[in-house]
Design a protein that fits this description.
Length: about 130
């Protein structure tokens, strides 16, 4: 039972990290094998990708295209450690499947999370 309690404590701690940072920098470092130059390049590429996906999601009139872009946004975000975006994109994907469209509220939540991440990336890269 003690091991399960430790895992629960670790999970609680990671939730606090997700809530305080738009990108999990520990995850990003692991993904880039600790290479700071690669981390910066990944962040630059992610910044461009997230902007493109959000633009496509906003402009999409097609159900399948919306789902495709939400799914891509979810995967890219999880890969970089932008966990809040990944969670919101997953929820938006589910909502779109169930309701047949993406609500304005869900889109606004995604936009806010994306802007927060883009601002965070700009601060990290000093741009």
């Amino acid at each position: 039972m003690a091991a399960l309690e430790k895992i629960a404590q670790l999970d609680e701690g990671s939730e606090k990290i997700y809530a305080t940072r738009p990108i999990d920098l520990v995850h990003l470092s692991r993904q880039s094998l600790g290479d700071a130059g690669l981390e910066a390049e990944i962040l630059r590429m992610f910044d461009q990708m997230v902007t493109t996906y959000m633009s496509k999601i906003r402009q999409s009139m097609d159900f399948d295209e919306t789902l495709l872009n939400l799914h891509a946004l979810k995967g890219a975000s999880a890969g970089v450690g932008a966990n809040n975006i990944a969670i919101l994109a997953k929820a938006a994907e589910l909502e779109t499947k169930l309701a047949g469209k993406l609500s304005h509220e869900c889109l606004a939540d995604l936009r806010m999370a994306v802007e927060e991440v883009r601002h965070f990336i700009a601060e990290i890269l000093d741009e």
